[in-house]
Amino acid sequence: MLKALRGLAMLLSLATLAACGKSEPVHFFAEGQPTALSDWHVVEREDGRLTLNKGVIPYDLNTPLFSDYAHKLRTIWMPAGVSARYSDTGSFDFPVGTIISKTFYYPLPSKQPWDGKSVARTLPQDDALEKETLDLSKVRLIETRLLVHRKEGWIALPYVWNDAQTDATLERTGAVIPLELVDAAGARKAANYQVPDQNQCAGCHATDNRSRKIQPIGPKARHLNRDFTYAEGPENQLTHLSRIGYLTGAPAPGQAPRAADWTNTVHASLDDRARAYLDINCGHCHSATGPAITSGMWLDASTQDRLRLGFCKQPIAAGKGTGNRLYGIVPGDPDASILAFRMDSDDPSVMMPELGRSVIHREGVALIREWIQAQQGSCEI
Q1: Cα gap 197→199, rounded to integer Å
Q2: Together in a domain, 249 and 267
Q3: Are residues 79 and 151 in the same domain?
Q4: Residue 378 Cα distances to 316, 327, 370, angstroms
Q5: Do residues 223 and 269 both lie within one domain?
Q6: What tens digit of pLDDT does each residue of 301-326 get?
Q7: Using one digit for the tens of pLDDT, what is the confidence trace for 44-55?
């Protein structure tokens, strides 16, 4: 009888918590691969909105990586009593127990109901985040990727949202989701959105070709040094993370590096915008330590040598990807530049980046073409 009463009391307690909108705390799994995203309790569906659990902190990047025009709700969670160590150049040193999430979503065209395929093609600044939540009647959730820091290192887990938008299921082998991107004029473009399998995650996140260990890409000082509109108001992200105890060793924002916003034509130069775009979209692979080190073309923020950046540099093993062009970048001539050619292709055997997109980023291509056109010099001997 006593056991039954205790059981009833527990059920009533859980019901009370549910009625008050209380959720279970974030659950860090030190091993295993939970099949449901909801098992982690990082993001929660509540009253028709996607919300963040207690201690789950959103963040954004000055210039984000392009992923078929998808928007991303990025978050960091850490267990109590620990913090990440600041770095001026690399990803922050996050402690074991950290969970970094990235939820890919699209606004719906003109806020129309989901029709099974149509999503809006909009720029990063046109996101749908409202006080750290997403109204699920206005957006379509596609996937949530988790980077989980365990004792043996980071592990990547891709979860795909169900049709009802109630939960996401682990898809270790990836998935292809057919969509139609609808622009402001109503024009439509088919997109086979690709959810990467776990091995493909390493294609971008294994930024050190020697160790091949997965690492975070986005949480670097230069990408995070910007304001974010939190539920309580705007604040610089480095300042916010330091204030809440998630980051130690960070200088004042004015003393930290800052990447440009590639869309900001008023306050950022063409060179800064193009380099920021290449850094986040290409630099994690094309660097002195990345998987594309053998190409000899390094596009990360620290590279300044023009030959390393591709100026008048002949390809090593690009094959069909050259488009019969002779150099990575020909100053003043984007049409003769391999870089612009590969960015402006959706042929899997040609396009760059190789992963993470099925359509051409028209605005990104236009930026890099404008940058190449503005360069001085000649490749003639």
Answers
A1: 6
A2: no
A3: yes
A4: 20, 11, 17
A5: no
A6: 999 999 999 999 998 866 777 889 99
A7: 999 999 999 999
